[in-house]
């Protein structure tokens, strides 16, 4: 009988691993495919759309008609509104404003998305005037809706209505006909395309109409438990959409009308809905450029006298006038960036009410606001198209035709949502014009809103691209909007340079499209800051020389561009926290970066090496090692550049890893302040800021935590309105470029850690074996389950790789689990990328020690089994005196481990690896012994102190080292908010309570064993249990 116990215990441990592994699998249902629908409402469509069908002309059929209709007639995030009446269509629950009262919330936007889901094909090619089509309309009222409304796997055959705090969504399914008309809405139209469709929807029910009663009172607090919105099914919805036949400057608006065909008293009736969207040209060839139709003077370039502000005067002196305007526009003129409005704009007045403050420049934002609020308006370019001009089949050198939609982004809207809108309104200008290389400008005629009259097309937009940068001027594009009949600017805007490391590679001729040049104006001041910060005895330099520490520097003499590019990326930092000085209320989860823009004269990292960068032989400020640096502190939001908060310029010393910089930040003048001269500003920027950056050494970052430190201080007096308290920042751990194959240095340290852990374990096990030689009577009271757990921990690395010894799991939240790279039997360990003798020696030594630890553990288990067999032979009539793990010890240990694994899965939100699951049991290897001591009421010392203390200390080594080393994956680049959060947690010792739970539990178990082996006899005697006292007489 005793011989079966260990087999059952070992089998139970293995089954436990298999159960946990199986529980980590997940099910991913496949997406549903949409099938072509039958047109069952053809008769109703023919009756309701008679006015449209009667004016339709015969269609010119081609094979691409179905795909062309689906692509060209769908639109995303147009605008919709209802005519004034008594029957609103959708409710809105503003309850999210109460929950988030302390945070800024954008105003809700009413957006409409339409997609053609199916176009009936005719294999017989019969002449006809209409084609059956089906589609889906999604109407939303929400504060934020940055993603596409119609997903890949979303059903487009069933209507839906959803409401939650801050978001309302109605999906209507339509079927109808597609037709074309010979004439459209004006003399400038070449015809139009029309969709007439009938829809089915689940409409929300309004409360009974009465004075003072909100018809949507039931929609308040929609997030309450068990809430179900009252809806009614309705098939009486008529939608008519009108599209221009040609996409031009004055014909790019899509106008639609959706009305209910039910009677007004009925519950499903609603007031007419107006829809407005803009057609998108997917390529320049789809846009019909008509420069001959532009108003007189629209293409005239700006003169230097017209640009009466210092920003334009300085920039117009050195602008791009090369041969690749379309490449420049594609790369630097779009990019999804929000342009900043420059001071000096004119306000927009409402012609109906006569009040001003409704907008900025030519943009009518629809609601009045004061100047301080309107100063936060952003401007974005959408649907930018550019193509070279041709004459007689040949391209005209230095000229190109350009079209774009220029959209104003009000500060009270969510900009990520507003940037995806396609509606044309007072917030948009549709522009078309010509690029002229002789002036270096793109000048375009612009029409406001969706109308095509001459009154709407009285604006002119001019763009230019500066090539000289400085600390106060880092604009890749400057724009100005004026009236056609007047040169006085209505509004000017600038597009700030984005971080060069995000530009990407463009396969051009190997030369930078724009030969940017940087004018260093603060280097001398930064040099003075460096000398002022220096001391007679620099402890950092002393330690660096003593330990031969090295810092990021430019290595090598060849390929100067590549060397500077690598150094610029190395000096980029990401910070754990964003100080209040830089916080912006519209960004929920900001991430602060220090981005290097220029290193000497290098800016573009992705051009070929043939484009030389001038080398500064004498260094900066006469110091041969100092390097001129231009950088920025930039706010990121979900991988997107949001805004620049401070421009930096100074010097970097690779000898001690310190950077001394002068900072300039754009400040909003307080009310009543109209002169920058009073505050000592430079082009509207406060440059009385000193910044110091201290980088960690490159020779130690693989072994200990390596973070850069940044100090920002204002040099203004405390009473100055622009003064701020000093700011201390600590960056995320820096991942310097590896000079050897990936993971080499970290792998060497991990390998040495494995050797140390196994050596300590072998020494402790040998000590326990020697202890049993002199104290053989205590051997039966050693738990076989404890030894089985240890044997499994030493045997697993022999199958999966010795790196499994260091695998660990923590009770963290948000999937914050420390994972080890996957491996399998026969696969080279993750740190064995180098074939050198050092790695081979470490790996072989770890494997030999793992075999030794496994064998010694089995040897210890054999001694325990033999001693129990001898005890049973001495007392064959009283087998209860012989300790056994097959009952309570095994069951309790198994249950506790199973509960722990379930808890880990629940807290982490995802499964952990098999190595981590197995590693948790050796960490808590004393758990079966503690349970056995309590069950068997031992009053002896089965385990030697050097054994359980030594093995516990060895198992704690990976946990302690993991808290002081730099993370294995996190580098200087931001890769999603989750990665940022996890990386920030590594910046503190034991950042979360979950990280210390397992080590503390291991220490607690060791203390419990010590207490049991010392005081169990007194506890048993005090309990006065005769049967237990009888068992103690054995000793």
UniProtKB/TrEMBL annotation:
Catalytic reaction annotation: S-ubiquitinyl-[E2 ubiquitin-conjugating enzyme]-L-cysteine + [acceptor protein]-L-lysine = [E2 ubiquitin-conjugating enzyme]-L-cysteine + N(6)-ubiquitinyl-[acceptor protein]-L-lysine
Keyword terms, alphabetized: Membrane, Signal, Transferase, Transmembrane, Transmembrane helix, Ubl conjugation pathway
E.C. numbers: 2.3.2.27
Keyword Transport among UniProt keywords: no
Enzyme class, spelled out: transferase
Membrane topology: Multi-pass membrane protein
UniProt cross-references to InterPro entries, sorted A to Z: DUF2921, DUF2921_N
Involved pathway(s): Protein modification; protein ubiquitination
A Gene Ontology cellular-component term: endomembrane system
Record's protein name: RING-type E3 ubiquitin transferase
Source species of the chain: Brachypodium distachyon (Purple false brome)
